[in-house]
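Review form for a predicted model. The reviewer records the input and the model, then writes brief findings.
Reviewer: anonymous (R2)
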Amino acid sequence: MIELTGSTLTLKEMKRILFDKEKIVIAPRSLENVKKSRDVVEGIVREGKTVYGINTGFGKFSDVRIHEKDVNKLQLHLIRSHACGVGEPFPKLVSKAMVVLRLNALLKGVSGVRPCLVERLRDLVNEEIIPVVPSQGSLGASGDLAPLSHLALVLVGEGEVYDGEATKPTAEVYDGRGMAPLELKAKEGLALINGTQAMTAMGVLNYLKADQLMEQCDWIAAMTLESLEGIIDAFHPAIHEARGYPEQMEVAERIRTITKGSKLITRQGEKRVQDAYSLRCIPQVHGASRQSLSYVKEKLEIEMNAATDNPLILDDGATVVSGGNFHGQPIALAMDFMKIAVAELANISERRVERLVNPQLNDLPGFLSPDPGLQSGAMILQYTAASLVSENKTLAHPASVDSIPSSANQEDHVSMGTIGARHAYQIVLNAQKVLAIELICALQALEYRGVDKASKAIQDLHQNARTVVASMEEDRVFARDIDALTGWLERTAFQWELTKNESITN
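Model under review:
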């Protein structure tokens, strides 16, 4: 069980909730804070005070006072009218993460919702009743209004949810499980949708996938390095210490460790004086992307535990104030940074693919073909990699530099963070495919060199990967190989045991 407090949730815990389906519980003290903030809202309604979102309209309608008898109806109207999402649904794991993150934010006890509402969110997670949420329609300020409205619909028994991998009307699933819809009370609709949980949930999945890819790209690059008889001197620890970036030093050490004992790795001057940048600069490029991912992790873990709705109930109820914590700029910038970092992993991988298949750049059979000319071998694999990295370059354009005013210019600057998060997801998927293509080519090149000459670690990688895709003995539909290896990368953490090697002596 993972206890949610509103302030302690980590990415490691999110991984367990999402991928291991670990159950969640609500911290008792956090539930008490929820009750206290709810008492404040109910006092406001009783006393007839004018407070935004409790007894006023929204956005440009913030000056319209709502009669006490209509404050509950106001919340339902809000959810229904704002459920304007379009496009393909978010991946199921993202929608689940949205529920977890919205629950965690409400547990900070500054949003004014009832305990029964947070308990229902908990039950949705634990019972795997996951909202179907369209992925397009958020501006990333005033919160992820459209996506979160589709999430909120599920609480009132409307919209659709996943039932296994199929989708069903929420009302049908509730009936089947003996669950009753909630009636939203004052402020609860607004508290559910004023937040950054769609972009943050997408960012969480992006990070978890990219973090695994960072590890895998070092291994795959190391196999390419051996297959091309690369020069190990460029990974000398003193070179990387002289620059001082910890991530660069870590990548260099990992490459040295993975290639330890290889009879294919060469020394400076044995075959050539220098390697091309796509080999020589692996630590500098991979290391810089790791730096970027560390920044993304820091911002995500802050936002995962942030109160992002409006207004907030502060100072034990003494202060109810409108602010702008729903503005997604911190996550928008982080997602744009992630897009560039992951796109660069794919960029340099594609350049290594070119060095593996181009007979003008190596002494291997042209395009790694078993019968050059009659059989094209890996020729079009490189085309596909080039297409994917080119697509990534367009997706990597920063979404956060754009803003379009909304709500009659009341909301006149928005983050577009959810667009950035969605594009980052596509870049990660594309990068996985490019790395899979590099691995296909490196496996084949290694066999031409002699697998028995490779390091023990690379032999292990070769053996494991060859259970997924066979050697190129004849041209075949390589799209199937790409899909198979991409799926394998998705499922597999490269954690074979390594013995650290601090020198470059092999």
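Findings: Strands lie at 2-4, 24-26, 86-89, 130-131, 134-136, 160-163, 166-169, 312-314, 319-321.
Further findings: The two ends are 46 Å apart (CA to CA).
Recommendation: see findings above.
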